[in-house]
């Protein structure tokens, strides 16, 4: 059960995610939800998450549903579909193999600043961590 402060952090992160989704919704090339990018090694990219996003994720999921990530494939992608789609991280929301890279980079920069501000507001250590490391620590 999340604490009151974790709920407040989750609410703040949720507002940032809403902003991302609103901006992405205006962009013509939308994610096709094919799941290819969830195989990070196969797609040749890495996903980084912030400390406040991990708190959001843990607050939204049943603690028993947080999975470690022992390989390069996201453990929440099952049969090509994201099983935590409503709770996915900022990087998952922003990235699409169909979108313009400049748009994605600019949005990532804006959102990173907002996530840093959340950490500062709640006196939370800001960490920008590779997803496998973050998930594996969350399941210890």
Short descriptors:
140 residues; mainly alpha; two-stranded antiparallel ribbon; two-stranded antiparallel sheet
Question: How would you characterize the overall build of this protein?
Answer:
The structure is a single chain. By secondary structure, the chain is mainly alpha-helical. It has one domain. 50% of the residues lie in helices and 7% in strands. It is built from six helices and four strands; from the N terminus they run ααβαββααβα. A two-stranded antiparallel ribbon has the order 1-4. A two-stranded antiparallel ribbon has the order 2-3. Strand 2 and strand 3 form a beta hairpin. The longest helix is centred in the N-terminal third of the chain and has 22 residues. It is globular.
Proportion of residues in helical segments: 40-55%
Q: How would you describe the shape? A: globular
Distance between the termini: 17 Å
Radius of gyration: 14 Å
Number of strands: 4
Largest sheet, described in full? 2 strands, antiparallel
Question: Which blocks of ≥5 consecutive residues have pLDDT under 50?
Answer: none
Percentage of residues in strands: 5-15%
Mean pLDDT metric:
90
Number of domains: 1
Structural class: mainly alpha
What is the helix/strand order? HHEHEEHHEH
Strand order of the largest sheet: 1-4
Count, helices: 6
